Amino acid sequence: RPKKSFGQHFLHDRRYIDDIVRAIAPRTGDFLVEIGPGEGALTMPLLAVARSLTAIELDTDLIPALKDRAAGVGELAVIHADVLKVDFAALAHRHGVARLRIAGNLPYYISSPILFHCVEYAAAIEDMHFMLQKEVVERMAAEPGSKVYGRLSVMLQLACRVVPLFEVPPQAFRPPPKVDSAVVRLIPLAPHERHDADPELLHAVVKAAFGQRRKTLGNALRQLLDADAIRSADVDPRVRAETLAPEDFVRLAKRLAKRLAAR
Ligand code: SAM
């Protein structure tokens, strides 16, 4: 029986499973990592093409059946762990591969933490395909000025190209979730496209800026940067965070780094 506490909603509609596998387009020899394989709805078709796959599953009860189903299909390695504790760079290194391809129908109760976690390892990842709440995909892809533009949009877009692919209705899952779902592709930016701000300071600036949505940027960032410092980063302290482009936050984070260094 699917467990609510693990966010278990298993895909059973063949059409959507096929669409997802086609979107991932696994190739033999890919180093595929699946987050939350569950009963293997995506695992088995991916394994059939890629021949080997590493799955990360938190629920011990699911693992024996998963291994049984994989026998004869391909080489399945299961890591019994919380995905938030998995070091993807170390995993790639251990297997002598440059970059992982990650996929998963994610447990929605921790989808944002999983996204932030994966983004930290962008350099070790070729691409990611995730099933998420449709509303989360909309937030990830939102542009400045949009109502749903926020921390998730900025942090994701500074690390990856965000490509929403298609929607999936609740009836495609067992049990059906209460929300609509969507599949998104994330392609980590190439090294020369990546920002060079300190990740922690960037997090701090973005968090503070959106933590007080109704305030002006000057007010929201008051603990970190004064109005003159914000202006010297080429940003108007009188505007609200949701009007800034992702790159504006990079300049603010760099300005903050300078301020801290000057102390
Ligand atoms: N991939 C399967 C499918 O599409 O039918 C299952 C998807 S289900 C939405 C999410 C899966 O993630 C479940 O198997 C659940 O046990 C697993 N899971 C939940 N929390 C997890 C965590 N912190 N780390 C790894 N897996 C987790």
Summed up:
With 263 residues, this protein is of the alpha/beta class. It is built from 11 helices and 9 strands.
Percent in helix:
25-40%
Terminal Cα separation, in Å? 57 Å
Element-level helix/strand string: EHEHEHEHEHEHHEEEHHHH
Strand fraction: 15-25%
What is the radius of gyration? Answer: 20 Å
Number of helices: 11
Describe this structure in words.
The chain has 263 residues and is an alpha/beta fold. 38% of the residues lie in helices and 20% in strands. The chain contains 11 helices and 9 strands. Strands 4-3-2-5-6-9-7 form a 7-stranded mixed beta sheet, sandwiched between helices. A two-stranded antiparallel ribbon has the order 1-8. Strand 2 (32-35), helix 2 (43-50) and strand 3 (52-57) form a beta-alpha-beta unit. Helix 8 crosses helix 11 (246-262). The mean pLDDT is 96. S-adenosylmethionine (SAM) binds next to strand 1 and strand 3.
Which SSEs are present, and which pair or pack?
Layout: E1 10-11, H1 14-24, E2 32-35, H2 43-50, E3 52-57, H3 63-70, E4 75-80, H4 88-94, E5 100-105, H5 111-120, E6 125-133, H6 134-141, H7 151-157, E7 160-168, E8 173-174, E9 181-188, H8 199-211, H9 217-220, H10 227-232, H11 246-262
Parallel strand pairs: 2-3, 2-5, 3-4, 5-6
Antiparallel strand pairs: 1-8, 6-9, 7-9
Helix pairs in contact: 6-7, 8-11
The structure holds S-adenosylmethionine.
Key features of this structure:
alpha/beta, 263 residues, 9 strands, 11 helices, elongated, binds S-adenosylmethionine, single chain
